[in-house]
Amino acid sequence: MSVMTMGFFPEIITIDAGDSITFINNSSEVHTVTFLSGNPPINPFSPLADVKIGGNVYNGTTVVSSGMLLPGQSYTLTFTNPGVYIYQCIYHAGMVGIVVVNPAGTPYPMTQAQYNQVAYQEVTQSLSNGESIFQQVNIPATPGPNGTTVWHVNAGLTTPAVASVQLTPASGSDVTGTAQLAIVSPGEMSVEVDLSGLTPGKTYQVQIFTGASEAGGRLTYTLNPVVGGSNGTGTSITTVKVEPLDPYIPGSYGIPAASWYVNVSSGDTAVSLGDVIAPAASAMRFLPSTLTIHVGDTVTWTVNAPDEVHTVTFVPQGMEIPEFGTPVSLIPAGGPVFNGSGYYNSGPLLPGQSYSLTFTVPGVYTYVCLLHDNMGMYGTIVVLPNGPVNSQQLAQLSTMLNQLSGLSGRVYNNSAQISQVDARLSSVYGTLSQMNATMNGLQNSTASQGTLMQVVNARVSGLQSTLIVLVILVIISLLLNVVLITRRR
Ligand SMILES: [Cu+2]
């Protein structure tokens, strides 16, 4: 998989006090489900991020956290008190969701099936946004020293931090419109609000709250007001200062996937409002994935995603790819000049951070992200010699490229074989469970046969006693007959 989306789906869910929610990690990444309840954020790189905090009941005031949820794992929480609760994944800045808890007995706005539909739409939308990432890769190379070139590679890439919000009428008004949010530079967000159905000459306040439009929240940004024009429309554009999504990741500027809503009001009355839903999608790839350069050139990798951490790691032949988290994976190694062999590692690159290597030896070099190698996050640098390439060098190069494609072919074959084995195993499991079911059935039928036998036995013995009684009766009547016959004589 090359595109991954970051969010909780559905982004907003409304339940009643006493209800439970099961959060399932349906991804290849690790996540947490963490309710901070206004307490300070947890450092994603501290061990506290990985451990479960609190029980499985949330009263709205304490910190509860699932700890590290591996792919396929789930976490269930029961909500005891009405309120609007924001939760997040500690590892992925901006991965935020909302639970609205109404008093027990309040009718539900949606069924589970409807929420599933909303979740499907949100995921589909963000994944199709994600596909567009591959069209945006276009960073020009820049001149380096002594006639060399500095090339740029995106280590992962996320959809632009933008969100489009539909504003729907409230309090019986006719005011509709849209709000467009966009991070325009680190620390700056621009918001354009376009409204119609306004009273000409009237001034409307526009604000962003943290919470959910159906349940209220806390004022976060005040935007420029909108004045109704003669045709009932109006616009305002505001640039506001924003904080990083995660204070522990300074470059994490973005729009949270959920937890904001835009509120248009007249006096104290809300006349139009809408939730900001901005699930981001990331390409878990090095873009461009293959780059051809010349000896002496430099490659600079930059993490262009507010919510991801990657590494750029060259692992020499014969060495196993290190597991992320081990010291060898975390400590930068190799220095700034790549001489064609050996272990080179950027260490974890946070959002906005870069890593550069200058290549001095012609060759074909494959590198990997130690966190996302399981998703196929590999890249290749082809280093050509300077000056004209002779036919022998070209032949060597094509041999190396062939070997490389052979290797990747083998990897694909292996994974295909593994999935075949998986399929066979699951069919064996299926057969086993069928056999179990048959065995159970057999046992049941044996048991019922036993019961039948008992019934038959009981009947037979009943019949036997009846028969004995009958025989006795017959004997008695015979005797009586004999006696009568004897008397008649
Ligand atoms: Cu990565």
UniProtKB/TrEMBL annotation:
Which segments does the entry list as coiled coil? none
Biological process (GO) annotations?
Answer: superoxide metabolic process
Q: Which residues form the Blue (type 1) copper domain?
A: 5-102, 282-383
MF terms in GO: copper ion binding; electron transfer activity
Q: Does the keyword Zinc-finger apply?
A: no
Q: Which UniProt keywords apply?
A: Copper, Membrane, Metal-binding, Transmembrane, Transmembrane helix
- Tell me if Transmembrane helix is a UniProt keyword of this record: yes
Q: Name one Pfam family in it.
A: Copper-bind
| Regions crossing the membrane | 467-486
What is the name of the protein in this document?
Answer: Blue (type 1) copper domain-containing protein
Supply the source organism for this entry.
Answer: Sulfodiicoccus acidiphilus
